[in-house]
Amino acid sequence: MNEALKEALDLLDLEQIEHDMFRGRSPEERIQRVFGGQVAAQALVAAGRTVPPGKNVHSLHAYFIRPGDPAVPIVYDVERVRDGRSFTTRRVVAIQHGKAIFTMSASFHIEEPGIEHQASAMPAVPAPETLPTFQEQITALVGEDHEQREWLARPRPVDARYVSPLVWEAHLDPDLRSAETNVWFRFDADLPDDPLLHVVLGAYASDYTLVDTILLAHGLAWGTSDIMGASLDHAMWFHRPFRADEWLLYAQESPWAGGARGLARGEMYNASGELVVSVVQEAMIRTRLSQNRR
């Protein structure tokens, strides 16, 4: 298990400070704001710790309200909205400096039999073992001496293997621009058999590349003067159990962008081709042109 994954798992082990109130921290990195996937994952941990055994999360709907301050702990206040026989609902507010930075509603459901279908098949893509790691791709793209190489190629808890071009590649080559992205990912360690942990890590990873799918269509890339972006809201539906320490294909598309916003959708498939998670996110996308108009 690499140090970045150890740190991520430690961040998800929230401290309970009051009844239905938890405290989380951020990694010690020189970043301007807290990673959205971390906040969503921590909020889901807080909600899950107040739910009776036998109920698993099946959906969450979240809003990113203010940028999180990585230097200050985040307090997660859980409201027990409903405890029914089949469904349980929780609302979580993440607070810093006395203000809400994030809100989430999550629903938990007992395991029940029912009808089944899956309309879309997993895209036909190369196996993850045949693809380079994200760090290898970045090093090959920007070189060892690039000023952003250390930040871009820093260790991550997620092992991501891109089938599609990186946004920095499409920034340089217009022929690589597309509104679709396919990425394999997994957390490269043997994780405990805790269903909530695997769902939480899926939520953590889900925020890494969705906004990139919007940028890819326009040749925009992080770290350039052309773009400023942030997640606005995030919704997930968990269809069946999965393991975050096994390869998942994250197939993403951006059906629309406009008005300084963009929409991205994602579907996660296990290696057997079963759809396990659906994701939708809207993001703020401000280009240099739109910023100059303010």
Task: Describe, in short, the structure shown.
By secondary structure, the chain is of the alpha+beta class. Helices cover 22% and strands 36% of the residues. The protein starts with a helix and ends with a helix.
Description:
The chain has 8 helices and 12 strands. With 294 residues, the protein is of the alpha+beta class. The protein has a 12-stranded antiparallel β-sheet with strand order 1-2-4-5-6-3-9-12-11-10-8-7. Strand 1 (15-18) and strand 2 form a beta hairpin. Helix 2 packs antiparallel against helix 6 (195-206). The longest helix has 13 residues, at 36-48. The N and C termini lie far apart (46 Å). The model has no long low-confidence stretch (mean pLDDT 92).
Helix-strand layout with pairing:
Elements: H1 3-11, E1 15-18, E2 21-24, H2 36-48, E3 55-64, E4 74-83, E5 87-96, E6 99-110, H3 134-142, H4 149-152, E7 159-162, H5 167-172, E8 180-186, H6 195-206, H7 210-216, E9 227-238, E10 248-258, E11 261-270, E12 275-287, H8 288-292
Antiparallel strand pairs: 1-2, 2-4, 3-6, 3-9, 4-5, 5-6, 7-8, 8-10, 9-12, 10-11, 11-12
Helix pairs in contact: 2-6
